[in-house]
Amino acid sequence: MQEESKSIHNPKLAMILSIIFAGLGQFYNRRWIKGSIFVIVELLFIVICGQFVNDGIWGLRTLGTIPGEHHSLFLIIFGLISLILLGFALTLYVLNIIDAKNDAVKIVNGEEKRTIMEALRHTWDRGFPYVFVTPGLIMLLFIVVLPLMFTVALAFTDYNLYNSPPRNLLNWVGFDNFTNMVTLKAWKDTFFKVLTWTIVWTVSSTTLQIALGLFLALLVNDPRIKFKKFIRTFLILPWAVPAFVTILIFAAMFNDKFGAINREILSVFNIVIPWLQDPFWTKIALIMIQTWLGFPFVFALFTGILQSVSKEWYEAADVDGGTRWQKFRHITFPHIMYATAPLLIMQYAGNFNNFNIIYLFNNGGPAVRNQSAGGTDILISWVYKLTFELNQYNMAAAISLILGLIVTVFAFFQFRRTRSFKEEGNIE
Fold this sequence. Notes:
mainly alpha; MetI-like fold
């Protein structure tokens, strides 16, 4: 009789019942408690969240129909929250189907049914990590992911100073904002100039601070150098001063009229440089300041790594007749890069979005005629101006999306090429 029951039991039927309504497949498998939980959860979702999700999806699709009454921004937010709730519901729904199928397969295979206590213990053992991860995941979704989704959504609307809710309703415009960014002259010239300077700024300032930090670390690590502790402490001091304080001090020092650099240093050679009026010299000043701000961290990082390089490697190189350059090229440099590549990549990504120094030094200036960006604005500072000064929210969101994609692709590509993020045993 038991064998006949096993042969009659059908996993496909359990899946179909779970698709019709969560929990029915568990009832078919005689998992009464589990089935009741799934049924209650689905009923609660329909009763409590059903109308909210339905209205949210409608608002996200239409962005409102009555100007002055429907607020498109709120409808976007409610719609995105509805998508998150719907994602949770669909996840549980799929788990319900998989669970019904797995239980049905176990019944067909003749596996013994667990007691209630055994089932609870098994569920707790397997689900223990998820119990503690879930609250953090929920917070992450609503604190980090939801604002990102909102920014992405704005990039595909016509939200600007002249079309703002609730007086006006927003509209979905597809990829028009991105197309205008690279086709309309008013936007194209500014975008490509700012993008070019952002890349030049990122590569030059970060590379210089890394090169200076490496040079000083190698110099201090030389066994012939005395008073190493004092020198290391002295070189790390700029890192101890808050960056914004240093930037403001340098802004005063580079001032064209009363700055110490022009008045006290360059005046000796009868030279006056328009540090804050000429975009070229402002960029030079910014690169020098960022090199000063960034090298102490790199210096401290490389100094620690150099302590771990085995002296036996250098001794073996001396026996083979290796020169200083060969030892640096084949021992020191590869060892440093292997250990620090991810952090150095993050230095480039951080400077790509380094808003503080651009804004605090000269507010992205000097101004450029017929452009919404200043002569030294990078993408992130231009986004700030578009958002808070020009109210071009849709274009700011579009640029933010482009900026995020650039950083993500660059970081992903570089991390994939480094060995530091490969699991042990997978390094070839």
